[in-house]
Write a structure and sequence with these properties.
The chain is of the alpha/beta class. It has 18 helices and 14 strands.
């Protein structure tokens, strides 16, 4: 198969969360454990840092990778979802896995995949772990896909675990209370493996402390212990919390050497070193176009707050969501006096644009609906003056179509 044919097979034939939602989540580790054993347990052949959380886990993962790259290490990076190309999920020192490796991996393991009906995410995790083992990385940064306890990445035993923060997202799978969500995220904590919590939250700290104590895992709350201040090339004031978690994680990482200069340069060169996209990314000026992949209430609240601190005459917001989002919690976060361009991201789970428009109107958000994200974005650019801002967000998939 060609690369495109391989991706089509992965996307269409097997369940994929970003397309199908909850129905693609099987809530078990049996399949990934079996696949790992079939591959020769590659996750045991490299050291790792495991990163979970509701918001900030992607940015934090890229920061960690960038700093360790600056220190001269060969660093694997596994993240999800991808924005433009599937290969973004699997990188070494910022370079994506080759198309040929993806094709060869699926072809070589096709009989096992056919027989065992692995999910899209399970086969992708196996691919990443196999690649990192074959390439003999010094360390791999592994981002949780969803939750933690039953996430397919949770077969590793990392050097350090990092949990960025806890908020309300994927509640249909993880639970409808912070306590339940916290227990799912805390599922990545391993016996005798130190864990860093980026942000101290009174509602969740007792649960983290209890689990860490039971597992004899040293626990550190970065927001309470890290005083150093660093700048990062990742724009967005919300990155301050992520930086503290990253620094605390590196402080607990044994066997690797890095300096304050490595931290400084790594944080300042995250985009160049890792290729991260979609975090308060500025696409152009006059009008200024900003996109951000934040898609839950905690993340969007911070993004909208920063958006309103920008200098502008008017904001044009291009929004598109997926079906499982709680719009009653998200829509009140957006400003009522700006103009909206409603669209539907081009995936199966994309929320119908007329449903979005009607619900937005009930929350005082006025605008027009468009047949595609590109059409909405084009209209926003056409209507915006040089002193205006165009914001694109609501979903990773909405941002991806603009990028």
């Amino acid at each position: 198969m060609t690369y495109k044919e391989t991706l089509d097979w992965m996307f269409v034939q097997l369940p994929m969360y970003q397309e199908k939602g909850k129905s693609a989540f099987n809530g078990k580790l049996d399949a990934i454990k079996s696949f790992s054993q079939h591959l020769g347990n590659p996750e045991k052949q490299f050291k790792s840092i495991h990163v979970a959380g509701t918001n900030g886990k992607g940015s934090s993962s890229h920061m960690l990778a960038s700093i360790l790259q600056e220190a001269g290490y060969k660093v694997g990076l596994y993240t999800s979802p991808h924005v433009k190309d599937f290969r973004e999920r699997i990188r070494i020192n910022g370079k994506t896995v080759s198309e040929q490796f993806v094709v060869d991996f699926i072809d070589r393991n096709r009989p096992f995949l056919d027989a065992n009906e692995l999910s899209f995410f399970e086969m992708t995790v196996g691919m990443a772990f196999n690649y990192f083992a074959n390439q003999e990385v010094d360390l791999a940064i592994i981002e949780v896909g969803l939750g933690g306890r039953l996430d397919s990445t949770n077969i590793i035993t990392p050097e350090v675990s990092l949990i960025t923060n806890i908020g309300y997202d994927h509640m249909d799978i993880l639970g409808h209370t912070l306590a339940k969500i916290t227990r799912e995220k805390a599922g990545i904590i391993k016996p005798d493996v130190p864990v860093v919590i980026s942000e101290y939250q009174k509602e969740t700290a007792e649960i983290f402390d209890s689990i860490a104590t039971t597992l004899n895992a040293e626990i550190v709350y970065a927001s309470e212990t890290i005083e150093e201040e660093y700048e990062t090339s990742l724009l967005g004031s919300y990155q301050t919390k992520n930086i503290k978690g990253v620094i605390a994680t590196l402080n607990m990482l044994n066997g690797f050497e890095f300096t304050a200069d490595h931290m400084k340069e790594g944080l300042f060169n995250v985009v160049e070193n890792t290729g991260i996209m979609g975090r308060w990314q500025i696409l152009r000026e006059q009008p200024r176009v900003i996109c951000d992949t934040a898609h839950n209430s905690e993340g969007l609240e911070l993004v909208v707050q920063q958006l309103m601190e920008e200098k502008f005459d008017r904001i044009h917001l291009v929004l598109g969501f997926v079906e499982d989002k709680n719009l009653e919690a998200l829509l009140p976060l957006f400003p009522k006096n700006e103009y909206y361009y409603f669209s539907r991201p081009d995936i199966r789970r994309g929320l119908d644009v007329e449903i979005l428009k009607d619900k937005a109107l009930k929350h005082g958000l006025k605008g027009s609906s468009y047949g595609s994200v590109q059409e909405a974005y084009g209209a926003a650019l056409k209507n915006a003056s040089e002193m205006d801002i165009v914001f694109v967000g609501g979903s990773t998939f909405t941002v991806a179509e603009v990028l």
